[in-house]
Each structure stands twice: as structure tokens, then as C-alpha cells.
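Hey, can you fold this one?
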Amino acid sequence: MSELTNTFLLVYAGLFPIVNPIGGAPLFLGLTALRTPAERHLLARRVAVNSALLLIGAMFVGSHLLVFFGITLPVVRIAGGLVLVAFGWRLLHSGLDIDGETASRAGGPAESDSFYPLTLPLTVGPGSISVAIALGSQRPSEHTPAEVAMLAAAALAGILAISLTVFVCYRFAEPLIARLGDSGINIVVRLSAFILLCLGIQILWTGYSTLAPVAR
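Sure. Predicted structure:
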């Protein structure tokens, strides 16, 4: 039982600071400021579900896909860092207008927005995917199939707990809009975009630094 608890805590504690649902909540509010409360709540639920599916896929299938396509983890970090840099740069310059553009294109709730950019890269970015793949690659070999299945269930519970945390933070962060107002939300969005830009560059540099000695 203690090993199951440790697996659950390892997955949850390993992913929580990188997914950072508390820090992402103001940015989620800014990007959905033009939505109705019902649409925002629906998006929060879909982002939580998408996040869970992405993390589950990365943990249990990600390492096999990388081997199949001959892709290394540093390359994943570099590609993910580029995506995060591009999104952060665009958000830094457009602010709240980014949501207005997607709303005008879709003419409605824009269900597709729940995946990009709200799930990827805002909530589950390249760092989260890399950690999930790394955790999934550390499969125990000395356990019986039944014990491995139980440990996998504990890891799955950790991912679902992260997804639930994302939903709670996004769903109940709405009162911030009334306190901050449009200008306050816009400031938070731009500050968060700058942090995302820095994180993208850091992930990109980490991937390059890891890949460079291998290339040589």
C-alpha cells in the first residue's frame, strides 16, 4: 500500500509544479474573458479532460512512440520549447485580443480552443509531457504483472488528480475577473505570457544542452 501511495504522490508531485494549474488560472481567465460563464465552465471541464488524456498518453505510450519514430527526449523538449515560445510571443503582443480573434473565427463557443491553446501548450506544455514520458519510462521490472498493474493504476490516479486540480482552479477562478477587471486581466495575461516565453526558452535550452553532447 505504501508503494502505491508513493507512486501516486510521485506522479502528482512531479507534475503539479510544471502543470501549475494555480498559476495558469489567471491566464485561462484572460483567454476566455469574452466567453459566457457557461462556455467558460465547459471549456474548463474540457481542458481538464484533454489534459488527463495527454498526460496518460505521454506516460503510458510516449516512450514507445519516441522509440518507434527514433525521436529522443531532448528533441521533444526542443520542439515543445519552440511551440511554447511561439505561443508566449504571440500572447505577449496580442493580449486579450487573441481570444477575440478565435471567437470571431469560430462564431461560437469554439470547442477546438479547449485543446489549442488552452490545453496545449497553456496547461500541459512540453515540460509536463517530458516529465510524464520520463515517469512512464521508469517501469519496475522486479514486480509481478498484478503489482505492475496496481502501480499503473496508482500513476493513473495521480494524473486524474492533476486533471481534477486543473478543473477546480480554472472553474472557480472566475471571481478574479470581477476584482481585476479587463485591464487587470490583460496585465496578468501579458505577465504570464512573458513567463511562458521564458519557460519556452529554458526548455529549448535544456533540450539543446542535453542533445549537444550526444551529437558530438
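Confidence is low (pLDDT under 50) at residues 102-109. Let me know if you want another pass with a different chain boundary.
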